[in-house]
Amino acid sequence: AGEGSGTMPGDGTGSPAPERVLFPPTFSVSEIKNKQRRHFMFLRWKQQQRKEKLALKKKRKKEREALGDKAPPKAVPKTIENQRVYDETTVDPNDEEVAFDEATDEFAPYFNRQTVPKILITTSDRPRGRTVRFCEQLATVIPNSHVYYRRGLALKRIIPQCIARDFTDLIVINEDRKIPNGLVLSHLPDGPTAHFRMSSVRLRKEIKRKGKEPTEHVPEVILNNFTTRLGHSIGRMFAALFPHDPQFIGRQVATFHNQRDYIFFRFHRYIFKSEKKVGIQELGPRFTLKLRSLQKGTFDSKFGEYEWIHKRREMDTSRRKFHL
């Protein structure tokens, strides 16, 4: 057969030739000088990579189906999370020292049901519209919370007034250029105080396919992946914001999910489609927190004693090391 007839050389069966490989094994897009050509070839190379990956996946699936019960177990993919560097402060639930600390720390009265959470949500001085709306929506998520707009009043003067009025926690939302960018959470009356950097704030109207306004039912609280002693303390701080007994009839759940030391907050409602199927509907708002410091006692920027401060150059030496 001729070279252009579409058959394999020396193959008398007339079967079509296999698809020609587009790129040699040592192909590098950066060698192409023309920018448009380089971009076009890069897209084609990515497309070929996807095809090869899909073909390999299908091949492995067929092999597993053919082997049946004798098929080897699926390989666990390597991720940054499961390759995490071991932290010696990881909490063991059966550790007596941990149990003693929990029984004697600042949150013990809450977990022993001696106090009922009462939260004051305030802002930096003279907040703008987006921060105000965020505080109002946060107050609908956390039961028994009250919003107060600061007008030049120092936090050191607010804290004694909060303690006198039986508030158990103080939340301060800071902003920069009209955008909420920080959160201070102080447990009253004895602390501790956590400083967070806040990002990716989305109000209710900015969330696609959101549900109706949340009801006044007490939500269920889910805390994920707070595994170290520091993470354990932060998780207890978040738990102490919500009353003990959630009203499951409201089908609302507040989630604090820690992943690579970023704390993602989401607020959902369960939607029961049938006896076996259940979906979730986001209600908002949503935001992401990154712990910057944990301070003993209530807020004191000058003379406060810090339990933990995030020092980026010293602590972030490995992408696989996490502190929470």
UniProtKB/TrEMBL annotation:
<dbReference type="GO" id="GO:0000460">
    <property type="term" value="P:maturation of 5.8S rRNA"/>
</dbReference>
<feature type="region of interest" description="Disordered">
    <location>
        <begin position="1"/>
        <end position="22"/>
    </location>
</feature>
<feature type="compositionally biased region" description="Gly residues">
    <location>
        <begin position="1"/>
        <end position="13"/>
    </location>
</feature>
<keyword id="KW-0690">Ribosome biogenesis</keyword>
<comment type="function">
    <text>May be required for ribosome biogenesis.</text>
</comment>
<feature type="compositionally biased region" description="Basic and acidic residues">
    <location>
        <begin position="63"/>
        <end position="72"/>
    </location>
</feature>
<dbReference type="GO" id="GO:0005730">
    <property type="term" value="C:nucleolus"/>
</dbReference>
<dbReference type="InterPro" id="IPR007109">
    <property type="entry name" value="Brix"/>
</dbReference>
<dbReference type="GO" id="GO:0030687">
    <property type="term" value="C:preribosome, large subunit precursor"/>
</dbReference>
<keyword id="KW-0698">rRNA processing</keyword>
<dbReference type="Pfam" id="PF04427">
    <property type="entry name" value="Brix"/>
</dbReference>
<dbReference type="GO" id="GO:0000470">
    <property type="term" value="P:maturation of LSU-rRNA"/>
</dbReference>
<dbReference type="InterPro" id="IPR044281">
    <property type="entry name" value="IMP4/RPF1"/>
</dbReference>
<feature type="domain" description="Brix">
    <location>
        <begin position="117"/>
        <end position="300"/>
    </location>
</feature>
<dbReference type="GO" id="GO:0042134">
    <property type="term" value="F:rRNA primary transcript binding"/>
</dbReference>
<protein>
    <recommendedName>
        <fullName>Ribosome production factor 1</fullName>
    </recommendedName>
</protein>
<feature type="region of interest" description="Disordered">
    <location>
        <begin position="49"/>
        <end position="75"/>
    </location>
</feature>
